[in-house]
Amino acid sequence: MTLLTLENMKTDIGQYSVLHDVSFSVPEGGVFVLLGRNGAGKTTTLRSIMGLWKPSPGSVRFRGDDITDLHTADIARKGIAYVPENMGIFGTLSVAENLILATAKGQFDQNRLDRVQVLFPALKTFWTKQAWSLSGGQKQMLAVARAIIEPRALILIDEPTKGLAPSIVAAMAEAFSEIAETTTILLVEQNFSFARQIGRDMAVIEDGRIVHTGSMADFVADKALQSRLLSLSA
Amino acid sequence: MQQISNTLERFGGVNLLPLLLAVLAFLLIGAPSSWATLTVAGLAMGMMLFLMASGLSLIFGLMDVLNFGHSAFVSFGAFVAASVLSALGGWLASDSITLNALALTFAILAAMSFGLIVGWLFETVIIRPVYHDHLRQILITMGALIVSEQIILAVWGGNPITVHRPHFLEGAWIIGDVSIEIYRVFAFLLGLAAFIGLYLVLNRTRIGLLVRAGVENREMVEALGFRIDRLFIGVFMVGSALAAIGGAMWAGYETLITPALGGEMMIVVFIVVIIGGLGSIEGTLLGALLVGLTANYVGFLAPKLALASNMILMIIILLWRPSGLRPAAK
Lengths: 234, 330
Prior knowledge:
The complex is a heterodimer. Chain A is an alpha/beta fold.
């Protein structure tokens, strides 16, 4: 079943046209990976889905509803969480405050909080610390934890492994696989070795256009295609 | 500079600056009674500046809106309060503390209500169309400040207006050689109460949490499902009301006000916000106290430098900390 559909999406930022014609569908469940080089339009795609930049023309449909013209806050309330590339952590707030802010009613569901703390034990250790004092990996954990502290249907995650140590990346891959059992993830990545571990379906974006969609297994098996689209050695 | 910063951090950080300034002034002034009088005057002035500036700091921090019309609320607060106090002149002159207090309460409530209502109108009509456009914000809010001065001229006339203080706030307490004006103590306490109230709202409530988060990253707050534009209207109204209360208190402090009050206060209010760091209530309080104390100490020690003292203070602070003493975002 399709959860999210982008149709002929075109997004301009100022006088620059960044997305020219983006169309793909994200099925419900698992991790959908959007691959592409720097500047291909990956971040713009996520921001356009969240309504932070408005596509024109084109449409974004979530569970069949057109959300193209909705306000970002209303899109989030439909059940879409967003973890931006810079993580969007509130540095002067504590870890606990960052998380409580993401709850709908201002209080934690104990089961979900327990799950978050099992997935990311470091957050419990630094519970009352201001978020700016966390390491890069811990901030990324907090950003993802904030996205799952409430039940969501879809999480948009922008390059979560950027600048992280290999051990943290491995922990992230494990956490994402577990999260994807209950929540669909649309992951934007440049790190193909990370993406291939957890991705089920995928698309490749190049110069603001989708140039390939399919299953990750097929893409991994086709070295020539990888080489052509991602400049990876065959 | 780095060495000074590190040493200061070890002993309590920038929060100690007003205390250090007071100690330095004590050594330079020499006469304890003069120093005490100036310190009380500086603290009172600082607290009134805090009332005027706190809203501006939050408005800029939360929505990146440069509101040069903010001091129009200071002006209107002063004139509205002056009119109420004038209308209740009999209560002010009465020996009854209850009637005195009622007159003052009505004057402050009138200024506050004016700030709330006109703040809402100002945000809706003037600010909202120019979100995300600093140049137009500066032009339109400067224009609004000029228009507000003309409205004051039309309603209250161009002559200075004398503001009557309540009888129970007249005079001074004499402790040894030290004379402490009662009104200044009241202004200090009112400002302190406003700071504590704001601090509690910002740090103990969900709305406050949203405001603090919004000051840091409003886009992310929206991505979490909150309409920051609606929150901003509330912050704008409260900020305008606080400025109006500050104006009302300033009117009683100066006892003579003119339509140019808003324009005169605009520079000082901006200096306070810039020194303190944008979007931070604690920073605004620090900035206001430093400006208040500096103006009084320099006015006594080097009267010719009095007008320039706030600018000099701002330059020194910004050379040391370009983002201000306690900016909201890290």
